[in-house]
Design goal:
The protein is mainly beta. It has strands at about 5, 10-15, 20-25, 35-40, 45-50, 55-60, 65-70, 75-80, 90-100, 105, 110-115. The strands form two sheets. Strands 2, 4, 5, 6, 9, 10 and 11 form a seven-stranded mixed sheet that branches. Strands 1-3-8-7 form a four-stranded antiparallel sheet, with no helix packed on it. The N and C termini lie far apart (about 40 Å).
């Protein structure tokens, strides 16, 4: 069983920065694609960024150039560096681990609030 624990959320002003972390238990982290998703009230959960086990990254158009995803396989941790934050970035951010088509895990989420 894999557990994902997010941290680093909080309240920040427009233009500020936050760094989210997600620590994973178990031994499959280094073999998995890791992702950050977010869900704002009334909206569907959406992919923010992902990183494969080989380090290939993808980003939602809305965060390109502002957010950076990275991973440290030695620490079983994935990060999301968020710069130039906007009020529309306000959401609950969830960590996701995908080890296979049918092997997907989610964290409980961390709240990010950007004040205008």
């Amino acid at each position: 069983q894999v557990q994902l624990v997010e941290s680093g959320g909080g309240l920040v002003q427009t233009g500020g920065s936050l760094r989210l972390s997600c620590a994973a238990s178990g031994s499959i982290f280094r073999l998995s694609t890791m992702g950050w998703y977010r869900q704002a009230p009334g909206n569907e959960r959406e992919l923010v960024a992902s990183i494969t086990r080989g380090g290939s990254q993808e980003y939602a158009d809305s965060v390109k150039g502002r957010f950076t995803i990275s991973r440290d396989n030695a620490k079983n941790t994935v990060y999301l560096q968020m710069n130039s934050l906007k009020p529309e970035d306000t959401a609950v951010y969830y960590c996701n681990l995908q080890a296979g088509i049918y092997e997907v895990y989610w964290g409980r989420g961390t709240q990010v609030t950007v004040s205008s």
